[in-house]
Design goal:
Layout lengths: L3 E4 L9 H10 L4 E7 L11 H10 L3 E7 L7 H7 L3 E5 L6 H10 L3 E6 L17 E5 L14 H14 L5 E5 L7 H7 L3 E4 L1 H4 L4 H9 L2
Parallel strand pairs: 1-8, 2-3, 3-4, 4-5, 5-6, 6-7, 7-8
Helix pairs in contact: 2-3
Length: 216
C-alpha cells in the first residue's frame, strides 16, 4: 500500500506560500493538500481558486483539493481549470453526489468523497465502486490544529473493509490531527494518504517531519 503524505497548506504561512511550496517540492511528500472553505458549510473561510491556480504553477506534484463548500458541483470546471488533480467533495454537501462524481471525472480529475466524523460509512456504499478516494475526517472540518478523534482509527478500518467488499480501488485519506504518534496506526488500519498540517508546517524541520510520517 502507498504511504502518501499530503501537507495541508491551511497550516502554511500565507505570507510565504512560495517558500512552503518549495519546501514540499524538496520533500518526500507527493501531494499538496488545499482546503477550500466557504464560511457556510464550515464556519471558516480559507482560500479559493486564485491560490490553487498559483500553487499549480509552483509544483508538478499532485494538487489534492478538498472542497468544504455548499453545492460543490457549481465549481467543478473552475477547479479543473485552476489545476486540481483530485477534487474531493463532502457527502453532506452534495445532494446529487453520483452526478457530481461523474462531473469531476468528465472534467478530467480524480474524484474524492469526504465523510465528517458523525457520518457513517454506509453513506458511500452505492458510490464506492466509482470514486477514486474516500476522505475520513478525523476532526470536525473548518479549522486546523484540532485534536485527532480516536474513533477515526476504527472508521478507517471499516472503510477499508467496505472498499474491499465493493471491489473498489479507491484510496483512503485521513485528515485532521495527524501526527507522528498516530501515523503508523492509521497506515496499519488501511489509510493510503495522510493529510498533515501543523505536524509539518509547525515542525522545526518540515522536511524531516514529512520523512518521519512516511516512515512511521
Amino acid at each position: 500500500m502507498p504511504r502518501i503524505i499530503s501537507p495541508s497548506f491551511l497550516s502554511a504561512d500565507f505570507l510565504h506560500l512560495g517558500d512552503a511550496a518549495r519546501m514540499v517540492n524538496e520533500s518526500r511528500a507527493e501531494w499538496f493538500h488545499l482546503d477550500v472553505m466557504d464560511g457556510m458549510f464550515v464556519p471558516n473561510i480559507s482560500f479559493g481558486l486564485p491560490v490553487v491556480k498559483a500553487l499549480r504553477k509552483a509544483t508538478d506534484k499532485t494538487l489534492d483539493v478538498h472542497l468544504m463548500i455548499e453545492r460543490p458541483e457549481r465549481y467543478v470546471a473552475d477547479f479543473r481549470a485552476a489545476g486540481a488533480d483530485y477534487l474531493t467533495v463532502h457527502v453532506e454537501a452534495s445532494t446529487h453526489l453520483h452526478r457530481t462524481i461523474q462531473a469531476i471525472h468528465d472534467a478530467g480529475m480524480r474524484a474524492g468523497v469526504a465523510l465528517n466524523p458523525h457520518t457513517p460509512i454506509c453513506m458511500i456504499e452505492e458510490i464506492a465502486p466509482i470514486v477514486d478516494m474516500v476522505l475520513i475526517m478525523s476532526v470536525n472540518p473548518g479549522f486546523g490544529g484540532q485534536q485527532f478523534i480516536a474513533s477515526s482509527l476504527d472508521k478507517v478500518s471499516r472503510t477499508r473493509d467496505l472498499l474491499l467488499r465493493k471491489r473498489s480501488n479507491a484510496l483512503i485519506q485521513v485528515d485532521g490531527g495527524v501526527n507522528a504518534e498516530n501515523a503508523a496506526p492509521l497506515f496499519e488500519a488501511g489509510a493510503d494518504v495522510l493529510v498533515a498540517g501543523n505536524a509539518v508546517f509547525g515542525a522545526p524541520d518540515p522536511v524531516a517531519a514529512i520523512q518521519q510520517l512516511i516512515e512511521a
